[in-house]
Request: fold
Amino acid sequence: MSNISFEDYSAICTTKARYCRHLDEKNWEAYGDVFTEDAVLDTRPSGGPEITGRNELVQGVRASIGDAITVHQVHLPEMTRIDDNTIDVVWGMFDRVIWGESKARELGRKALTGYGHYREQYRRGADGQWRIARTQLTRLHIDFEPFTE
Reply:
């Protein structure tokens, strides 16, 4: 854990658990609260865009998977302390996305199952809460299910 206290380790794990749950339940307000206001979401390594700003990030994710059934799981965080209020984390990840018919038709695929990593930076705010300041999604492998009529 590279000199990371159990309290910080546990708090960051809880933040990421909330990220997954709120994303999968489509609780957009609570999902947004796991990010700093100036957060950056970088999905370019996975074929998506880079988005800056909490509100823009939530809008972008909602437009992409708002009507989809999703399952996000993260595993075995590797944490490195940068300073008292900044910690870098790499999570192994798995996600399953099943789009609704109109989005599936638009994309030409019904679903995906992805395996990869989140590379993130967490920042402790003035309120003492750890939030995601930067996240990058990389996928090592993706299984696509084609959309068929």
The two ends are 50 Å apart (CA to CA). The mean pLDDT is 96. Residues 6-146 form a domain with the Nuclear Transport Factor 2; Chain: A, fold (CATH 3.10.450.50). Helices lie at 6-25, 28-32, 54-65, 101-107.
